[in-house]
Amino acid sequence: MAVGQLTGGGVHSFIHIVDRISASVGKAFAWCILLMTFVIGYEVFVRYVLNDPTSFAYDISYMMYGTLFMMAGAYTLSRDGHVRGDVLYRLWRPQTQAKVELVLYAMFFFPGVLALVFAGFEYAAESWSYQEVSSASPANIPIFQLKAVIPAAGSLLLLQGMAQVCRCILCIREGQWPPHLEDVEEIETRMLREQERAEQSHSISGGKRDGGP
């Protein structure tokens, strides 16, 4: 019994640590949005007010957006925020959801992410070898450093995928999904959760009244 509890606690700790890593990386790269907003705002001002457009705004915008998109992938996965066709999924018991997810991770997620890591590493190494610069504008901004984002993002996704598999295993064993770390969420999601809690409380209190003396 003690070994089982220790093993379960170790799995929970692993999930928690990986979630923290993904959250830290995702929130750090979220600053790309601020930089991109500043650059685009500056470009609009100098282009339409001073009639002196920059040669770097386009490069900075797609670099920052692409970097954020890649490096926030593991963070989004840790918060179960990726798009899912849940027409049937939401009707299943947690154990059924976990079993289906476990199969899909093995069949599609890990092969795709491993391909991203290895192919991305070769792509980045080639870019670094000749110090690649942007060909999309006359500024010739170096972009070989950013190519390293591809294998880095893939590695983070791979690590977070392992944590998600552990979540599936725990759900199959315990009958409920391990909780995610508290974080920002959409107002609609929070309202739905509060509505569910209110309905549950109402059902419990109604049952007590019906069964009372």
Question: Secondary-structure blueprint of this entry?
Answer:
Layout: H1 2-29, H2 31-48, H3 57-71, H4 73-78, H5 94-129, H6 144-147, H7 149-174, H8 187-211
Structural description of this entry:
The longest helix is centred in the middle third of the chain and has 36 residues, at 94-129. It is globular and about 65 Å long. It has one domain (2-181). The protein is mainly alpha-helical and 213 residues long. The chain has 8 helices and no strands.
The helix-and-strand class reads mainly alpha
Count of individual domains: 1
Q: What is the 3D form?
A: globular
**Mean pLDDT level:** 84
Question: Which percent band covers the strand fraction?
Answer: under 5%
Order of helices and strands: HHHHHHHH
Low-confidence stretches: 1-6
Largest sheet at a glance?
Answer: none
Distance between the termini: 42 Å
Number of helices: 8
Assign a percent range to the helix content. over 70%
Radius of gyration: 23 Å
Number of strands: 0
Sum up the structure in keywords.
single chain, 213 residues, mainly alpha, 8 helices, 74% helix, disordered N terminus
